[in-house]
Amino acid sequence: MPCLILADPVVFISVLWFLPRLFLTSALRVVMQNFVENFSEFSAAQRNAGKHVTIMSELSRLVDARTLMQVHLQQASVSLL
Asked: Is the pLDDT of residue 75 over 80?
């Protein structure tokens, strides 16, 4: 007995159209579910990264404002003498 899906071209084309969308939808569902399950870790990591960027920006501003890099270079050149 021949396969009924392959015998009818309209059904076959409909199946070819529907299957990739089904797999894409299920894959998207898995990705979204993982994101929702891990959101608390994600938001904690995001807060930590934000704090890190804030601290590093403030340190950079202070080094520039007090010309600490130039002071360090002068100290290093003096210590080589």
From this structure: yes
C-alpha span between 81 and 67 (Å, rounded): 22
pTM of the model: 0.50
Looking at residue 1, its pLDDT comes to 46
Under DSSP, is residue 79 helix (H, G, I), strand (E, B) or coil? helix
Residues contacting 27, CB < 8 A, separation 6+:
none
74 CB-contact burial (10 Å; exposed 0-12 / middle 13-18 / buried 19+): exposed
Alpha helices (runs of H) in the chain, residue ranges in sequence order: 4-7, 9-37, 39-65, 68-80
Yes or no: say if 16 and 9 are a contact pair by the CB < 8 Å rule: no
